[in-house]
Amino acid sequence: MHVGPTNSGKTYHAINRLKEAKTGIYCSPLRLLAHEIYTLMNNLGKPCELITGEDKRVPTVNGEPMETVLNDDGEVVVPMISSTIEMTNYARMFEVAVIDEIQMIQDFNRGWAWTTALLGIKAKEIHLCGEESSVPLIKRIFSSIHETVTVKRYERLSKLQTSDQTLNSKWKNVKEGDCIVAFSRKKIFEIQKQIEAITGMKCAVIYGGLPPDNRSRQANLFNDPNSEYKVLVASDAVGMGLNLKIKRTIFDSLRKFDGNNVMPLTTSQIKQIGGRAGRFNVGYDTGIITT
Description:
Layout: E1 2-3, H1 10-20, E2 24-28, H2 31-43, E3 48-51, E4 56-57, E5 60-61, E6 64-65, E7 80-84, E8 93-99, H3 111-120, E9 122-130, H4 135-144, E10 152-153, E11 159-162, E12 178-181, H5 185-199, E13 202-206, H6 212-223, E14 229-234, E15 248-251, E16 255-257, E17 262-264, H7 267-274, E18 286-290
EC number: 3.6.4.13
Organism: Smittium culicis
GO molecular function, one term: RNA helicase activity
């Protein structure tokens, strides 16, 4: 297990082990993250296929899709897999499997997918990445099947602090590098329109239903220092894995509809989302969280 807060390098270390393997699979909580690892592996010369609920792509060689990849000896290369957690491959045997955001095993709606992957995936090594809060449950699960768990703990690589001032929806005080987090698509576009009208700064937009290619473009627009897009308005989709040059995370609300009721965000959720600010070696040395 690789456990720690956001921006601690836990997933980085697990992916490095995946890069070394001859066969492997990455199980992602989001389509966009699955797409990122698919692109990363293929760019490194390690053939990798993408499998999500909405997309399936073959490996690429020099940017060109290849149904079959051959090595220098003319032998067929078995590609790695980057997939969303729900599309995990249980038929193949892998050298290394990486299951990201393992704390989601406790999620009421999607936890089944992490449980099934944890117990069903065939791999010599399984690397789990996530929060410290998931460790006791994972240890109990593995103890019940007489397996052991090695836990590696990581500390955050940059500072994160809360602000003593709130914007209170006064969008004139929005600054370059800010990310405003809202929990509905309607609210996201409403805030985007208000900020652009009041400040003149363009806003990139990221939310869960946005296709991965579009999300990547929006993230690149926000990250590019030469772009006109200086502010990001997003859903909590930014809380998992995206490398964004966020200086300050601003919560429009600390309550979210969970499918049945509007509930307060948990401390874990606030840390996960707010911790995207101040990413190590990405943009800012210190991240700020406010409302």
